[in-house]
Design brief:
- This protein is an alpha/beta fold.
- Helices cover 50% and strands 10% of the residues.
- It is built from ten helices and six strands; from the N terminus they run βαααααβαβααβαββα.
- Helix 9 links the parallel strand 4 and strand 5.
- Strands 3-2-1-4-5-6 form a six-stranded parallel beta sheet, sandwiched between helices.
- Helix 1 packs across helix 2, helix 2 packs across helix 3 and helix 3 packs across helix 4.
């Protein structure tokens, strides 16, 4: 069973909430007394689930508070990259389902887009134990392209038809896995759109996978 990382095994929204006080303190010289809670609300709005490059994100975040100059977005982006992972929070049920799969002898892997440094730091901080990790930057191609999925399957010595993939993103995860012949499980996240035009299994929590493990074999 293969998993996406952010918003699947890693609760990114909870992690951003946990990181907000440290980032708020770092940006305090430019914020002009903005309180933490209003800052946190705008932080989530500008973040766009992490899909914005951190340099651009930092510039947009400060612009949201009326700051357009006098800061180094590269330096602030480096603060994010070096500090965010220690605040990483697991998705509810993540450790439990990984432990359950290990107990059943089922191979597990993580396939994630992103930089090696930050994604590996999050995995390490969260203490996830899996058999293989493929980060898009390692091979120079991002999901939904087949290469990241195929590389993880190769490392696990498993065929696509034998694998399930669990993710939150309709295109990167669910469509990408479906096109390779894996069985996709869509973890329903409020801010993400539902996959269209393909067959998938919807789950509302990682613990829901237990129902399928109990009734069907991989």
């Amino acid at each position: 069973m293969l998993f996406d990382l952010d918003d699947t095994l890693h609760d990114r929204r909870a992690s951003v909430n946990a990181f907000a006080p440290a980032l708020h303190a770092q940006l305090e010289p430019w914020l002009g007394g903005v309180a933490l809670e209003p800052f946190r609300e705008i932080l989530h709005r500008v973040d766009h689930g992490g899909y914005v490059p951190r340099e651009l994100f930092m510039a947009r975040l400060l612009e949201a508070f009326g700051v357009e100059s006098g800061f180094d977005s590269l330096e602030l982006a480096e603060f994010w990259r070096s500090s965010f992972a220690v605040h990483a929070q697991p998705m509810r049920g993540a450790h439990e389902i990984l432990a359950r799969l290990r107990s059943l002898g089922i191979k597990t892997g993580i396939v994630t887009n992103g930089t090696i440094r930050l994604q590996q730091a999050k995995i390490d901080a969260l203490g996830f134990r899996v058999d293989a990790v493929v980060i898009s930057a390692q091979i120079g191609v991002k999901k939904p392209a087949p290469e990241p999925f195929l590389e993880c399957l190769r490392r696990l010595e498993v065929r696509a038809s034998e694998a399930w993939f669990v993710g939150d993103h309709a295109v990167n995860d669910i469509t990408g896995a479906h096109h390779l012949g894996m069985r996709p499980f869509w973890l329903e996240i409020e801010q993400h759109t539902e996959p269209e035009g393909i067959e998938f299994t919807r789950i509302e929590a990682l613990s829901d996978l237990e129902l399928y493990l109990s009734s069907k074999s991989i």
